[in-house]
Amino acid sequence: MPTASFDFTGSVVLVTGGGTGIGRAITRAFLDAGATVAITGRRPDRLAEALEGYPGERTAALPADVSDGSQVAALVADVVSRFGRLDVVVSNAAGYETGPLTELSDEAWERLRATNVDAFFHLAKAALPHLATSGGNLVAVSSVSGQRGDWGQAAYNATKAAIDNFVRSLALDWGAQGVRLNAVAPALTLTELTEGVGRDEASLAPHVNRIPLGRPGEPTDIPPAVLFLASDAARYVTGAILPVDGGTSASTGQAHV
Question: Which of 54, 96, 156, 236 is catalytic?
Fold first, then answer.
């Protein structure tokens, strides 16, 4: 992964959902760039796997449920206590639900909203004062689905749209304190979260048909953009939602024929 141009030596990074998929790729990219990285998630075994092979003094696996405000507050306090500072927060933990809204249970909606929206709220609330102290920044992993509608994804798209406007509004509120907030917006990326979409060529074809670069995203496609937004190279960038989508969002929605 091309991260050599970004040097995060001495920086402390917290990644939610850091044990799998895009979060794991982001975790390893920051570690490869010299950062000290704390990661959280609900599965301790996956957190340990994500950090395997990296120096123990630069890593911390801290299991937590990020939809629980008290756990998030304790998590952020733990990171600052362990490492003395907090420079970058990556809000990546997410859930995914599809299907007609009338068939989505109240429990599924509560779970989706808690993971995708409440978790960001709790994380930003706990972390922003520390980022103001360090002159740090927050990068959210949103989605192109937060920018427009998709068939059968009304609830999911609504949660990602909430993240986009959280990022924009908080960028306004915290810019004067030296804190930047941005987001990346992937399209279809092949992770555990999207495995129901399919892995064979036939089932992926309708999706790939809408991607100018001709393939779905891989988890390792996302971290370079995250590291850019978190780095001093983006020191004058805040409130931005950066598509990392193979060109998906460049389309008007017309069929590719």
Answer: 156
CA gap 187, 245 in Å, rounded: 5
Structure pTM?
Answer: 0.93
Give the Cα-Cα-Cα angle 40, 27, 51 (nearest 5 degrees). Answer: 75
- Give CA–CA dist 125/144, Å, rounded: 24
Q: What is the CATH number of domain 12-240?
A: 3.40.50.720
Burial class (CB in 10 A: 0-12, 13-18, 19+), 219: buried
- Distance, CA of 186 to CA of 217 (rounded, Å): 8
Is 156 assigned a catalytic role? Answer: yes
**Which pairing describes strands 137-141 and 241-244: parallel, antiparallel, or unpaired?**
unpaired
pLDDT in tens, 142-199: 999 999 998 999 999 999 999 999 999 999 999 999 999 999 999 988 877 666 665 6
